[in-house]
Amino acid sequence: MECPASSAASVELNPVLHPLNWLLGNWESDIPGEGTFPTIKPFRYTEKLYFSHVGQPVINFMFNAFNAESKKPMHRECGFIRIQPGTNKVAFMIAQNSGLVEIEEGELTGNHLKLQTEKLARISFAKEPHVQQICRVFQLLPDGKLEQTVTMVTDNQPLSQHLHITYRRSS
Ligand code: HEM
Fold first, then answer.
1. Which of 16, 80, 94, 138 could form a disulfide with 57 if both were Cys (CB 3.0 to 4.6 A apart)?
2. For the chain, what are the domain ranges?
């Protein structure tokens, strides 16, 4: 499936984005991801990721997760990624369908990207417990798969893993 926000094939990648080239394109979970947290029942999910550009020094992204069994849509995120030119500092600007908006910042080391919450806000009626801190790692594995691991702190739990998933390129 083509990302609705995807770039025109002819648009050249802005040179600022070269260090993040490995992330671009569409990805789909190869086997279901594992959802965990001390306070919830473990669950399995599938997910499609879309990273695109339109020639600007910005990546556009969309993540759509589904229940692995019923295939029903679940968590969704979308936003933009920027890299501070000439540095390895990366920023994600994220909106989540749970009512959360967030800035995550971190460092790119080769094909390994580690981010954590810098700013977080939510709608007034967001479900509790509220997340207070998110740490996220993306890395390109030697076999060409992409891995995402998310840990979080909530109102009543210390840093614990919430998500682990690997993806294969779908385009
Ligand atoms: C950075 C992204 C995400 C954040 C910040 C987040 C945050 C949270 C929080 C705060 C909880 C409540 C934990 C508790 O009750 O103690 C939760 C639960 C849950 N999350 Fe996530 N989540 C994220 C991504 C996802 C994704 C991709 C899925 C995949 C389908 C998912 C599925 C669930 C499920 C099934 C539960 C338990 C039931 C529920 O409370 O709705 N989450 N999440």
1. 16
2. 15-169
| Per-residue model confidence (pLDDT) at position 8 | 52
141 C-alpha to ligand 1 centroid (Å) = 25
Reduce the secondary structure of 119-155 to three states and give it as a string: EEEECCCCCCCCEEEEEEEEEECCCCCEEEEEEEEEC
Task: Say what percent of the chain tops pLDDT 70.
Answer: 95
**In the structure, what pLDDT confidence band is assigned to residue 15 with cuts at 50, 70 and 90?**
very high
CATH (one of 2.120.10.30, 1.10.300.10, 1.10.580.10, 2.40.128.20) for 15-169: 2.40.128.20
Could you tell me if the CB of 92 is within 6 A of ligand 1? Answer: no
> Residue 71 C-alpha to ligand 1 middle, in angstroms?
16
